[in-house]
Amino acid sequence: MTRWRDWARGELDGLRAQGRFRSVRTFDAHGPAGRLQGRDVVSFASNDYLGLTTHPAVVAAAHEALDRWGTGSGASRLIVGSRPGHDELEHDLADWKGAERALLLPTGFAANLAVLTVLAGPDVLVCSDELNHASIIDGCRLARAKVEVFPHRDLDHLAALLAAADRPAVVVSDTVFSMDGDLADVAGLAELCARHDALLVLDEAHAVLGPELPPEVGAEVVRVGTLSKMLGALGGFVVGAAPIIDLLVNRARPFIFTTAPTPADTAAARAALAVLRSPEGDALRARLRHAVERVRPGHPSPIVPVVLGHEDVALAASARLLEQGILVPAIRPPTVPPGTSRLRVALSAAHTDEMLDALLGALAGLGVLSGGGRSPS
Q1: What pLDDT does 215 receive?
Q2: 96 and 45, same structural domain?
Q3: Is residue 74 domain-shared with residue 121, that is, in the same domain?
Q4: Predicted pLDDT at 371
Q5: Label partner for 24 (CA 20 to 30 A): which of 41, 156, 318, 348?
Q6: Residue 196: inside a domain
Q7: How many domains does the chain have?
Q8: CA-CA distances (angstroms) from residue 68 to 61, 83, 88, 179, 325?
């Protein structure tokens, strides 16, 4: 027992020496404002892009589900864990994405593991963008496929890989990359996959402002999403052709061998999706677009990186912002490559102009503001 504890302490000492030790911080909040470490702060760290975690209709739907079905589903969905809300949400998600079918999973991470471990394998080539999310990377590893990592957004390199492939191919990419906030060329990816008869897997977790697939893509596409970001709940989903979804139901271990999503989360997500598809949802996205334009005009997503370089510089900048009541996390290796540590600003429709003014002023005080401006007086 002592040996393993000593080993763990040694590993932790190494992390501290590298400046990469992390610990959990408790944020007591309702929306972007709350208390952190005894201080009132406004968070620019959340993925609650449309502020739906506190929307009255979403909260009410969760309460109603709790009263009807209780706190948990009690089993995997293939046993007795499936509830009417799961079926209803899957129907709505498929309709939203224009797909034949949808499948719910406990998290977006589990959704990527499910898709890649079922649809890829030793006889398949997986081509993966170098900046894809950790869940895609782990899915590729567990699939035991032949994996080729292509340079970020490099369609020429991807085309060469597909042209040289000696086996069926899967191309997998985020649509919005979580640390840089830039976009994949989804139309270009779809065109290449159609040309080479490759399956295209797109992770749309952060795609609250797009990009959208063109109406006719000519390729088989499987789309992975999350309920925990723009929909303000918890869970993941996959949409695609009916035979592919049925195969996931029968073979995806992250679906088969885990408890079904809770009734409350499922109901909350369904209510949030209804808001998203309404005129109110259009207004929320317009509000989010306004926030992005305030901070970095023309940027395509609500993830705005401020690259500072060394870990110590990013950590110091984050600490200085926190002293001013603004929570912006420092992102450092191994999440991003060495020398590219950054502040990662995540914007939300729930941020007021006053909150954005405070953020912009604090960033300007650090000398790191890139674009943006103050609201009219």
Answers
A1: 84
A2: no
A3: yes
A4: 46
A5: 348
A6: yes
A7: 2
A8: 11, 11, 15, 39, 40
Residues 248 and 314 in one domain: no
What is the DSSP track for 173-204?
EESB-TTT--B--HHHHHHHHHHHT-EEEEE-
Domain termination site, one of 241, 276, 311:
276
Specify whether 253 is located in the same domain as 134.
yes
In this structure, are residues 181 and 300 in contact, taking their beta carbons and an 8 Å threshold? yes
Q: What is the CATH number of the domain that holds 329?
A: 3.90.1150.10
Residue-number span of the structural domain to which 319 is assigned? 26-49+302-366
Q: Do residues 32 and 44 make contact, with C-beta atoms less than 8 angstroms apart?
A: yes
Is 76 part of a structural domain of the chain? yes
Give, in order, the Cα–Cα distances in Å from 136 to each of 90, 116, 163, 186, 337: 22, 8, 23, 17, 17
Q: State the pLDDT at residue 376.
A: 31
Q: How confident is the model at residue 377, as a pLDDT?
A: 27
Q: Is this structure's pTM higher than 0.85?
A: yes
281 falls within a domain: no
pLDDT of residue 216: 84
Q: For residues 203 and 200, what is the distance between their CA atoms, to the nearest angstrom?
A: 10
DSSP conformation class of 261: P
Positive or negative, the CA dihedral 220, 274, 53, 327 is: positive
328 is a domain residue: yes
Dihedral of the CA atoms 148, 311, 182, 270 (nearest 10)?
Answer: 90
pLDDT the model gives residue 373: 39
Of the candidates 258, 213, 322, 267, which has an alpha carbon nearest to the alpha carbon of residue 79? 258
Number of H helices, E strands in the chain: 13, 14
